[in-house]
Design goal:
The complex is a heterodimer. Chain A has a 6-stranded parallel β-sheet with strand order 1-10-7-4-2-3, with helices on both faces. A 4-stranded mixed β-sheet of chain A has the order 8-5-6-9. The longest helix of chain A has 23 residues. Chain A is α/β, with parallel strands linked by helices. Chain A folds into 2 domains: 327 residues, 3-Layer(aba) Sandwich (Rossmann fold), CATH 3.40.50.10420; 66 residues, no CATH class. The radius of gyration of chain A is 25 Å and the shape is globular. In chain A, helix 2 runs antiparallel to helix 12, helix 3 packs across helix 12 and helix 9 packs across helix 10. By secondary structure, chain B is α/β, with parallel strands linked by helices. Chain B has a single domain, classed as 3-Layer(aba) Sandwich (Rossmann fold), CATH 3.40.50. Chain B is built from 5 helices and 11 strands. In chain B, the strands form 3 sheets. A 5-stranded parallel β-sheet of chain B has the order 1-11-6-3-2. In chain B, strands 7-4-5-8 form a 4-stranded mixed β-sheet. In chain B, strands 9-10 form a two-stranded antiparallel sheet. The longest helix of chain B has 11 residues. Classes of the chains: A alpha/beta, B alpha/beta. The interface between A and B is large, with 94 and 74 residues. Strand 9 of chain A pairs antiparallel with strand 8 of chain B, so a sheet runs across the interface. The complex binds iron/sulfur cluster (SF4).
């Protein structure tokens, strides 16, 4: 699926960094979106109120999740929707397949759903002889390239228009070398319209589900979810159980935060509210756990269930921006992914909590106030306690701790370090032994150490 | 045990501290001139808004829109203005594939984000909001003032909404768009290539 087969973040990031120009481009593309988000957040004086309300509503919902799930099911049923429950990814995929079989469906259009990605629905359906077309432009691009999305909101953010042009030339017969985004988008529009017209069933994700009305809300800019489910008779909506909110009124809070945090827009172009199937049609809603209920038990990590998948934490993360989404080898990358993935599968994703500078920027931008960097720090301790850390990380820590306990030795080594930084030839400082010197300059050694300055100052004060 | 029971049991058996819901009555943003703000935000997201006098004004304004004048297949769900395709005579929504322009009723507008609330109450096939090349949304202002059909922010908007059975409703803000190719904004991804909002006095 993903282009990175390895789970080791540093190795994958290293590969991404081999193309320095592209790394810089990726970095600035995401920073540009982060800046748009900042401008948007400042356009509303109540921004912080919205964030704390959102966080509180989510915390409240999680504290009574079982009741809300039951309420939602009852109300959705009353409106004629068919509600399914899936413990895990396999069961979710099987439910989808059963519905498709019942309708003898062969062609499916899907709109961006990270949950179906998480469940690896596409390969499963393809194995069963069903054509699945992702209809979000970015998703379609990565699907044609047989890659996974590298970002949860902008799935093809790692690609340049030349890459897209090549992909479309290969698969959609577009003009070779025509890199014009308008031309390429238009070609995809025509290609996907055919797919919409032929589809037997439309599958969407769910942004929010409303306990008090039994409705679901789907947000897109392209209108792909809506086209996908208003032509065929059957709509399958796949949602994680954490997507629930108590009441339709609460949507005002979340819709005001979501697009502003995600792309710096005041709202997505289409925010569609589905309440039951349309006349003569079927609406299936699949409620999926797949590890979510495990998170609830932990005071440390429960907050991660508040996530509304806006992607703001990725756009701001200095590590994500310089290592690319694929380096995380996971459906959800970036800060929130570095929490969710190791909690689900510690063995494979143990390097992710370390793909973090603990700068706290993710926590600052998160619209639902998830304490991302604190959780990442806690996770690190856990990885260490489980003895999953490589010696390259534990050994220097042990040595550092030994040195820090011996102040005289520390001071002496500091002096030596400064001397070496100043006087050693480059090749002895910048080499494989010094990971800090990779792709960056070491700091200049100050002429006086802090200790020397402090001692001088103390002396001066005394003599006054 | 069914998966439902399994999930409910594992969700219920947890010690999660209880948290109260916040009050939704807060001082949400108000605009000195909501109509002007709506127009500015809509322009920024690629749409246009105009205020017209009555149905005649609407017809005049449409006559100035090349995408309306050039449209071969049109749908109108606005009383007093005819399209050349009658939605009531169409049973299969696929037949609407090549509609060029659809004129549809909006219920009210939101100044904060230039969204217009549209439902399928008066639109037989809801795909007609998404499949035409161009869409015009018409907001009738019964009191003769735009202020009657506009609210300041989404919090006020949801206060106005009620949820009927099998209803489909959508906040539409501008034409369909994408920035998936190198972050260049392209208008007209899958849905409408242009969105025009008419406030009819
Ligand atoms: S953790 Fe917060 S910032 Fe990151 S995607 Fe989730 S809601 Fe957005």
């Amino acid at each position: 699926m993903s282009t990175s087969t390895k789970f080791d973040h540093p190795t994958n990031a290293n590969r991404f960094n081999q193309d320095q120009a592209r790394t810089h481009w990726h970095d600035s593309a995401l920073w540009f979106i982060r800046e748009k988000r900042d401008r948007m957040s400042k356009s509303l004086p109540e921004w912080e109120t919205l964030r704390s309300c959102a966080s509180q509503i989510k915390a409240h919902t999680v504290s009574k999740l079982a009741d809300y799930l039951e309420e939602f099911e009852k109300n959705a049923r009353a409106r004629g929707a068919i509600v399914h429950w899936a413990k895990d990814a396999e069961e979710h995929n099987q439910i989808v397949l059963d519905i498709l079989k019942k309708h003898e469906a062969e062609r499916i259009v899907k709109s961006k759903s990270m949950l179906t990605e998480e469940c690896h629905l596409n390969p499963f359906l393809e194995k069963n002889g069903i054509e699945v077309v992702d209809t979000d432009l970015g998703e379609r691009i990565v699907q044609l390239r047989q890659e996974g999305p590298s970002h949860i909101v902008m799935p093809a953010i790692h690609l340049k228009k030349e890459d897209v042009s090549e992909t479309f030339h290969q698969h959609l017969n577009t003009e070779a070398g025509n890199n014009d985004p308008c031309y390429l988008t238009e070609s995809a529009r025509q290609h996907l319209r055919d797919k919409f017209m032929q589809a037997d069933v439309g599958i969407t994700g769910v942004n929010f589900a409303l306990a008090d009305t039994g409705g679901i809300v789907v947000c897109t800019n392209e209108g792909n979810a809506d086209l996908g489910v208003s032509l065929p008779n059957v709509h399958i909506a796949c949602m994680g159980i954490e997507k629930l909110i108590p009441s339709a009124d609460h949507l005002s809070i979340f819709l005001r935060l979501l697009a502003r945090s995600a792309t710096g827009q005041p709202i997505t172009t289409y925010s569609s509210h589905f309440h039951g199937p349309r006349e003569g049609g079927e609406l299936h809603i699949i409620l999926v756990d797949n590890g979510r209920s495990n998170l609830m038990n932990s005071d440390d990590y429960r907050n991660a269930l508040k996530c509304i998948r806006c992607g703001a934490c990725m756009n701001t993360c200095p590590v994500y921006r310089r290592s690319g989404g694929h380096s995380y080898a996971a459906t959800v990358p970036g800060p929130i992914g570095s929490i969710l993935n190791p909690l689900r599968d510690a063995k494979h994703h143990k390097s992710l909590p370390f793909a973090c500078t603990l700068c706290g920027s993710c926590t600052d931008v998160c619209p639902v106030q998830i304490n991302l960097h604190e959780q990442l720090l806690t996770l690190r301790t856990e990885v260490k306690n489980q003895k999953q850390l490589p010696v390259s990380k534990t050994m220097p820590m042990r040595i550092a701790s030994w040195v820090f306990q011996r102040p005289k030795l520390y001071a002496w080594l500091g002096g030596i370090g400064k001397f070496f930084l100043r006087n050693l030839p480059r090749f002895m400082i910048y080499n494989g032994m010094n990971p800090w010197g990779k792709n960056r300059e070491m700091p200049e050694a100050p002429s006086e150490s802090f200790r020397q300055q402090y001692a001088k100052r103390a002396k001066k004060n005394q003599s006054k | 045990m069914s998966s439902k029971d399994h999930i409910l049991k594992s969700v219920r058996n947890q010690l999660v501290p209880s948290v109260d819901l916040p009050s939704m009555q807060q001082e949400w943003i108000q605009y000195a001139d909501p109509v002007a703000h709506f127009g500015d935000v809509l322009a920024a997201v690629g749409g246009t808004a105009v205020v017209v006098e009555g149905l005649d004004g609407l017809a005049e304004s449409l006559a100035e829109l090349p995408v309306y004048v050039d449209a071969k297949k049109t749908v109108s769900c606005i009383d007093g203005l005819m399209g050349n395709i009658d939605l009531d005579r169409i049973d299969d929504p696929h037949a609407l594939e090549d509609v060029d322009f659809a004129l549809l009723p909006g219920e009210f507008a939101v100044a904060e984000n230039a969204a217009v609330w549209v439902t399928d109450a008066a639109i037989r096939h809801r795909v007609v909001l998404f499949i035409p090349q161009h869409v015009g949304l018409v907001l009738h202002c019964p009191g003769g003032q735009v202020d009657d059909v506009i609210v300041n922010n989404l919090a006020e908007a949801y206060q106005k909404l009620s949820w009927q059975a099998n209803q489909f409703g959508c906040f539409v803000s501008g034409p369909s768009k994408t920035a998936d190719i190198e972050q260049s904004l392209v208008i007209g991804a899958h849905g409408a290539r242009s969105l025009h909002v008419f406030f009819v006095l």
